[in-house]
Amino acid sequence: MDGCMRRVCPCLVKLWDRGKKDVPAGDDPGEGEVVAPPRKTPPLPPAKEKGSIYVALWAFEARHEEELSFETGDMFNVLSRDGDWWKARKIDTNGRVLGTGFVPNNYLERADVSVESVGFFCRWYFGTMNRFEAQENLMSPDNDNGAFLIRESDRDTVGYVLSVKSSTRVKHFKVMKDDSEQFHIEPSPHFSTLLDLVEHYSNYSLSGVGRLGKPCKRKKPEPTDLNHLIKDEWELPKEEFSLEEELGSGFFAEVYRGRWKSNINVAIKIIKNSELNHQEFVREVEMLKRLRHRHLISLFAVCTESPPYYIVTELMEKGSLLQFLRGPEGQHQDIVSLVDMGAQVADGMSYLEENNCIHRDLAARNVLVGEGYICKVADFGLGRIIKEPFYVSEDKKIPYKWSAPEAISHGKFSSKSDVWSFGVLLYEIITFGGNPYPGFTLKEVFEQVKDGYRMPCPTKCPEFLYKIMMECWSAEPENRPTFKLLKDRMDTCITPYEDNN
Ligand code: ADP
Fold first, then answer.
1. Do 427 and 345 contact (CB within 8 A), yes or no?
2. 3-class DSSP state for residue 169?
3. CATH 1.20.58.220, domain 1-44+113-220, yes or no
4. Where in the chain is the domain with CATH 2.30.30.40?
5. Where, residue-wise, is CATH 3.30.200.20 in the chain?
6. Residue 253 CA: which ligand 1 atom is closest?
7. Where, residue-wise, is CATH 1.10.510.10 in the chain?
8. Is 269 annotated as a binding residue?
9. Ligand 1 pocket test, candidate residues 299, 317, 320, most atoms within 8 A of CB
10. Quick one: which H or E segment has residue 488?
């Protein structure tokens, strides 16, 4: 954070360093921890209070006894950080502890970078955020034209991005660095800090958006992730869950919106096959519990004491990617956003590949979309035991149009057969949920593909994307790219930014 502060707002570093010196000897904050600089109102807890001070940006109401309720402006000491939920102590202005529990980290801001302590400057710095989240924040009616923010892209290769509201859309400008580490958006001028850059474009026009207006007002996020409540005990009694409306149903399961202990939103998948091998199922769940990634659906619990089995996961408000693409929101996405969705899926799949987990049924229907258009791969891992018995007995349930030829003919599933399916998923994305191989029967698809037929480039599909699809559909699995390579290529092959170079 110290380094980040130096790059973002060097003028604050003195204040920052002074804050650090106030820490009594022997009570040095750990790495990344800084004691807030002195200020007048409200007084900070004594400097010997170990750890950083955080301030709540919005109120939050606990939904579970282990979570902590708080009001806007409440102060915290963070005890441990694990994912999106942090264990924290709520403290008063004298440092007295008012309560301890889990808090959603995106509701908190460090006091040492808060508006109050450092003034106006850093209100535009939003930390790590993807373009969709930036869009959702900027497009809220609270923000006028010219509202802006600087964020660190969640893509490793991108770095800082300036996002600006410009009438009906948001424009994103990649902030580049020259050889002497100076920032620039246009070929010139160059700036030694982001603050200088922001100040410059507040006074002079940036091509396409004019002068920067006010820093973006943050939208209150919805806490959804459940990882902090997951304990070693994954088997939970069905009575703890209540079912609400049906969200969808497929060959293998019915999915309901539901609640855990009356107040936590979850998705509950009820498996139709009641003859599952219990031991095998539990073994597979054991493995799935360890797989945690931003672009994979989090498993929350299972109920397997009696059939039908429940699989409980986080709830994704916008439903499947297929429904999303075909609906009004999907139809408004531009090419850059569509490619970004594909890149998110490649990211999640790359993690599965690294962990030797084969999906077996990757398709837009098995990717779910949440707030901020985050895409998460669902239905991984359990495919083999839930779906395969059906494939053997009922031919029509095999996802022919998504499956690699070697998977259909010899049952050879691998990460490379998942890559084949990913190519088909890209086709679905770029055609806004189009049906692959239109006009072909399932058997025709298999025969034709085996003989070398491949779908032609869809209208409006950029050439680079079709090239990726065709590589995913290489007849020989070893000639297909890995997900790791796909993720890197999708991140870089399209510059999701305004033409700023
Ligand atoms: P099947 O594998 O039997 O086809 P799915 O897992 O695809 O069943 O679920 C069917 C539908 O239920 C999905 O298309 C989606 O609309 C909805 N759904 C599934 N899981 C979730 C979830 N976690 N959050 C929200 N909707 C979900």
1. no
2. strand
3. no
4. 52-105
5. 227-313
6. 3
7. 321-498
8. yes
9. 320
10. helix 483-493
Distance CA(497)–CA(158), nearest Å, equals 10
251 C-beta closer than 6 A to ligand 1: yes
Q: Which atom of ligand 1 is nearest to the CA of 314?
A: 23
Measuring CA to CA, which residue among 357, 350, 331 is closest to residue 422?
Answer: 350
Residues 6+ apart with CB under 8 A from 117: 36, 37, 39, 111
Q: Could you tell me if the CB of 408 is within 6 A of ligand 1? A: no
Q: How far apart are CA 189 and CA 130, in angstroms?
A: 26
Please state whether the peptide bond connecting residue 42 to the residue before it is cis, i.e. omega within 30 degrees of 0.
Answer: yes
> How many angstroms separate the CA atoms of 104 and 227, rounded?
11
Angle at 128 between CA 168 and CA 496, to 5 degrees: 45
Distance 368 CA to ligand 1 centre (A): 8
10 lines ligand 1 (CB under 6 A): no
Question: Can you name the residues that pair with 218 across neighbouring β-strands?
Answer: none
> SS3 of 369, please?
strand
Torsion angle of the four alpha carbons 398, 315, 374, 115, in this order, in degrees rounded to the nearest 10: -170
CATH superfamily of the domain spanning 52-105: SH3 Domains (2.30.30.40)
CATH second-level architecture of 321-498?
A: Orthogonal Bundle (1.10)
Query: Which residues, in sequence order, are bridge partners of residue 191?
Result: 183
Atom of ligand 1 nearest to the CA of 252: 3
State the Cα–Cα distance between residues 120 and 160, nearest whole angstrom. 20
CB 175 within 8 A of CB 162: yes
Pocket test for ligand 1, best of 251, 255, 296 (most atoms within 8 A of CB): 255
Distance in angstroms (rounded) separating the CA atoms of residues 415 and 398:
18
What is the chain's pLDDT, residue by residue, as a tens digit (501 residues)?
A: 444 444 554 444 443 443 333 333 333 333 333 333 332 233 333 333 346 788 888 899 998 888 999 998 899 988 888 777 889 999 887 778 899 999 998 888 876 543 333 333 467 888 778 777 888 889 888 899 999 999 887 666 678 899 999 877 788 898 998 999 899 999 999 998 888 899 899 999 998 889 999 999 988 776 666 666 666 678 889 999 999 999 988 777 899 999 988 788 899 999 887 677 777 777 777 777 788 888 999 888 889 888 888 989 989 989 999 999 999 989 988 888 898 899 999 999 999 999 998 998 999 999 999 877 889 999 886 666 666 655 555 555 678 899 999 998 888 999 999 999 999 999 999 999 999 999 998 889 999 999 999 999 999 899 999 999 999 999 999 999 999 999 888 876 545 556 554
- Cα of 407 vs centre of ligand 1, distance in Å, is 23
Domain 227-313, architecture per CATH: 2-Layer Sandwich (3.30)
Catalytically active residues are 361
Q: How far is the CA of 367 from the centre of ligand 1 (A)?
A: 9
Q: Nearest Cα to 305, choosing from 284, 265, 276?
A: 276
